[in-house]
Predict the 3D structure of the following.
Amino acid sequence: MTTSSALSILAASPYSGYAYAYPHKTAYRPLCPPVPLSDVWQTEPRDALFCYVHIPFCEMRCGFCNLLTAARPPAAMVNAYLDSLQRQADAVMSAVAGASFARFAVGGGTPTYLSSAQLQRLLSLLRGVGIDPQQVPGSVETSPATVTRERLAVLRDAGVARISIGVQTFCEQESRKLGRRQSRHLVETAVHAIAATGFPCVNIDLMYGGEDQTLLSWTQTVQQAIDANPDEVYLYPLYVRPMTGLWKQRHQWDDQRMTAYRAARDLLRERDFEQLSMRMFRRSPAGDQAEPEYCCQRDGMIGLGCGARSYTRSLHYATEYAVGRAGVLGLIDAYIATSDAEFARVSHGIRLNRDEQVRRFVIKSLLRAPGIDRRLYREAFETDVLEDLPQLGELVDAGWAEARDSRIVLTA
């Protein structure tokens, strides 16, 4: 892959060029021989890491979902998974001595699929690796069907700063078309319960581009989300990915994603939301969430759990990945059976040479409102980004970006 073609990801069809992370997880391969974790992190900065914990369980699997998650798993599997998660955390922290965390997130799957007692156990695990939610800002994902007052109270009492609920749409017909069985009443009840709990930052995820969605129904969903008074709103385009429920239907429809995106963007801006990326809109700074210490282009991430990715500057790694239920359950079983010694080694990932690190830095930067910080780039690579990537000038010439003294930013 050339650097020029890497930039084309930004303009590619969403079905072929979705760049949520770079390199994509499908680029990961077995590492032979496995590398000790202590060696992986030996020369890496460890004073402002991000910790991500993956809970691969849900009450249902949505038609668009290609995440590593199992719907309605056996109860014994959930408890065994938490046992192994604790063992992995112990092994990782023993190997990565001196690690401290600036941020954390718990995702999935649906973390609030866990019971209140299991959530308490998860929070205890976080404290064991040095993450006190009262001191370290963190986020937990939830879904309308798993929101209960008891679960919310556990998270809020622990000090969790941000909760993110995947609503997608307030329209029941559109939910059914997305392969997501939820009533409007269920969604509204969950959103109101979260608001009443008093989290410092509440996010609502919405999705556009689904079958039978109209511009009117979409803007009504966005307006209802705004009326719920969240601190943040994320707008996600629908992508139909291999092995998902919608992909298996082999059904095509005429969607108006760019029209929907622009309408929602304009509506959110009119309601005093600041656009921080194509997907993220924030009404106002939510505590110190507004200026995170963690920098995704520079600082590392430690992932815990089956499918959780970890990042250093030169190595990205994770367990193997699957979407189908049989494959997911097989990987979870393998994770549960992993020995403590195996948890202290890296066996599946991708090494990043300088060119790949440059690509990642540029893609991760351009997709956010602040754009490419040329000073930060020079600190990382000892050159100017326009010297390394003169084709960025094509974005400027096309009116897609602006080149400033200190930054290169995408236009609206």
Remarks:
- Confidence is low (pLDDT under 50) at residues 1-18, 286-292.
- The radius of gyration is 21 Å.
